[in-house]
Specification:
Layout lengths: L3 H7 L3 E2 L2 E3 L10 H6 L8 H16 L9 E4 L5 H7 L6 E6 L2 H11 L8 E6 L15 E5 L8 H11 L5 E7 L1 H11 L2 H7 L6 H18 L16 H10 L2 E7 L17 H13 L4 H15 L3 H7 L6 E8 L1
Parallel strand pairs: 2-5, 3-4, 3-6, 4-5, 6-7
Antiparallel strand pairs: 1-2, 7-9, 8-9
Helix pairs in contact: 3-4, 7-9, 8-12, 11-12
């Protein structure tokens, strides 16, 4: 007898091996160009395998057996998909994304990678349509940097609760409100810090800084229509906990730690964590020019020294990015 997920997919239309679960929605940027900026996975196979192994170890540590079916939402160019597909402990993996182009990219990648999972399928699925998956068909729903793209987070969590069986888990890696707001606040002092270091800001520098401050404000505000924005939210654990309780889900969170990086050192805030996160963000997420980043980091170091004793002694650096875990009661 086929498992519920297999039965569901068998009755779902397919196009080129990609199940059409909901309407397609292209990515806001060209998928092939986006993928070119991702790590060269074929040269990082050991690292890729480890991330998938770490996520499964975290999942299994919460009492789930090997072979439990997994749904990945927002698989993008497939870093975690290829990682999970390389794990023999995966029974059935359904990797989904609103963009069929991303699904085709990962299909090509898996043709070059050793696949150990019992079965890997691809589907076009909007996160908002997760309720189309049959109840109890998957034991784990995983999202990496996807939840903050979803306009109706409370509604999405309720739909996940309707899909997961008792004890099933939703694991998300997402940004925290606290750390991002702190970054936006500190960014206001960058022109003064640069001037003190002998660097006068150009009009282009001011544009990058002002955009960063405005972006952090936008993410943090709750009074705006964000339906047309790509990135929409920052998260507060107390708010997520209230929604979880209302939908019959237990909630836990691991700040500044990723379920896919099972390094004991990663469970604690290291000295310089917040400063390094800020530097990474302006360089890689805000795409500031390298010369501006190279001037800003040393010029602002005096502000980040405030956090050093917190990071080393009391482990209370600002929460920037971490793992949110929802478990169906």
């Amino acid at each position: 007898m086929l498992a519920p997920l297999s039965e569901f997919l068998r009755a779902t239309p397919s196009d080129g091996g990609i199940y059409q679960i909901s309407a397609a929605r292209p990515f806001q940027h060209k998928e092939e160009e986006y993928d070119q900026h991702r790590p060269a996975e074929q040269h990082q196979l050991d690292f890729i395998r480890q991330e998938g192994a770490n996520l499964l170890a975290f999942f299994h540590a919460h009492g789930h057996p090997q072979g439990a079916p997994i749904l990945e939402i927002g698989c993008g160019s497939g870093f975690m998909t290829t990682s999970l597909a390389s794990q023999s402990a995966v029974g059935h993996l359904l990797a989904t994304d609103p963009s069929p182009a991303f699904c085709r990219i990962i299909q090509r990648k898996l043709a070059q990678f050793p696949v150990a999972a019992a079965r890997v399928d691809f589907g076009v699925l909007l996160a908002e349509d997760v309720h189309l998956i049959p109840p109890g068909a998957v034991s784990l729903i995983f999202l990496r940097s996807v939840l903050h793209h979803i306009a109706g987070v409370d509604d999405f969590l309720a739909k996940c609760a309707s899909v997961l069986p008792k004890g099933g888990m939703l694991i998300c890696e997402e940004p925290y409100y606290e750390g991002y707001v702190m970054m936006g606040f500190l960014a206001q002092f960058i022109p003064d810090a640069l001037a003190s270091a002998g660097h006068n800001c150009t009009a282009e520098d001011h544009a990058h800084i002002d955009n960063f401050v405005a972006t952090m404000q936008f993410y943090a505000r709750r009074d705006l229509d964000k339906s047309a924005a790509e990135d929409k939210h920052l998260f507060r654990p107390d708010e997520l906990a209230r929604t979880a309780r209302a939908t019959g889900i237990d909630f836990d969170h691991y700040p500044n730690w990723h379920a896919t990086i099972a390094d004991a050192k990663n469970r604690t805030n290291r000295i310089g964590y917040f400063e390094n996160f800020f530097a990474f963000y302006i360089r890689n997420c805000m795409n500031w020019p390298a010369d501006l980043v190279d001037r800003v980091i040393p010029a602002t170091r005096k502000y980040f020294r405030f956090f050093s004793p917190l990071e080393s002694a009391t482990n209370t650096a600002p929460y920037c990015f971490g793992t949110f875990v929802f478990t169906k009661r």
